[in-house]
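User: Hi! I'm working on a homework problem where we have to compare a predicted structure to a textbook description. Could you give me the structure for the chain below?
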Amino acid sequence: MCLSKTYISGFMRRNLFILFISFACIYTLKAQQLPLYNQYMLNGYLVNPAVAGSDGYTTFSLTARSQWLGIPNAPNTQVFSFQTRVLKRSFIVKGNSVKRKSFKPSRSGRIGLGAYVFNDMNGAMSRTGVHASYAYHIRIREDQLSFGLGGTAYQFHIQDLSFFEENEPLLSEGIYQPVFVPDADFGIYYLSYKYYAGISVKNVLQSYLKLGNTSLDGYRLYRHYYVTGGYRFEINSRFALEPSGMFRMSTQLSPQMDFNVKAYFMENIWAGLSFRTNGSLVSLFGVKVDRYYFGYAFDMGFSSIMKRTFGSHEFMLSVKLGDNARRYRWIERY
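Assistant: Happy to help. Predicted structure tokens:
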């Protein structure tokens, strides 16, 4: 189980301590430094900045994930995101003086903007911060190619560590002081009526965490790579089937893949399954009411830790503001 208070004898090497704080929980030694999301198919912006504004809507989303429910100090994440498209019908004020102003249209609706705030806790570690991104969308016939750049700034904090030896030197080196961490991400996203594909890189700068004075300077964030894709099969006017997948990997950890399939009924109800190669099976459910989207995911692993937990739960609530035309009819608006 996760260790909120970890007892480490003083004779252990400092690099062993660095290994511990890198992953926080003994059961997530093969996990990544960034949180996992089960419903990224519904809010791809969380893993790819190029998705911001890609569908032409103004979208507000709230995602809350609790991993390994029933285990104290298990990982949990909350994210509130916003994304929009700067439409060609919007105007900006531009002029040489206060008395002489002219209205000029913005850049043909190709600009997408997004931001989110997040709080991520994993055992003794916590990250709280903000992310903002800029996306540029290019129409290719009836499809769309998007590029996105994003920047992240957050506070990294370690707490609740104890040692057998009261005079352990690590305790006097300021490891409990919050650390400010900047970083960046980049993404490419291709979208059509029936399919989508994207690639993104997070923690591009691989920022160092200055934990304490000098002995812990070797702890850094790892660059993470994501590849996503999906295809939509229209069975008839009421039913559709959408298989999708994700490949994720960091520069230091083993790769991981998700295989997903979702079934839609009248665009308003969906259900699906997802298999993750770490040995997890995820059930997906959702409903759309007017412009509101409700999603729920439950994942159950097959490792020994599942004997002590009630599984992992993820909730998502989104509202999309804008044209309610048929799916991807937004292409004609730009």
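For your comparison, note the following. The chain has one helix and 19 strands. Helices lie at 14-23. Good luck with the assignment!
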